[in-house]
Amino acid sequence: MTDYLLHKTANLIDTLLVYPERMMKNLESTGGLVFSGQLLLDLAENGMSREDAYRLVQKHAMRSWKEELNFRELVMNDPEITSRVPAKQIDQAFSLKRQLRNVDKIFGRVFSTSRAKRGISMAKKNKATKR
Fold this sequence. Notes:
Elements: H1 2-15, H2 20-28, H3 36-45, H4 50-67, H5 71-76, H6 79-82, H7 87-93, H8 96-99, H9 103-111, H10 113-129
Helix pairs in contact: 3-4
C-alpha cells in the first residue's frame, strides 16, 4: 500500500501543471487575507496578548471577507494596530517574498533525491517484511 501511494504521489507531482500567473491572481484576490497569521504574530511580538491580537485580526479579516474590502487597507487604517506595529513591519507582514523565503529549502528537504530513495527503499522493505 505504501509503495502504491508513493508511486501515485510521484506521478501526481511529475504531471502537475502550475500556472504562476493564476496563482498570483488567486493570492491577490484575497485582499491580503493570506497574511493574517503573520500580522497576528507581529502584534503579539509587539506586546499585544495573543487573544487580543486574534480578536483584532479576525475582526478585520471577517469584515474584509464579507464586505469584499482590502484586508491590508483595513489594517493600515486601524490605530490599535498601527500604534503597536511599525508601518515597515506591517509591510513585511504582507510580503509574499517573506512568506516564501524558505520554500526552496523546504522543497529541497521534502523532494531530495536521497530522501526519495530512502522512501522507496523503505516502502520495498515494508512490502518485503509483510510477505
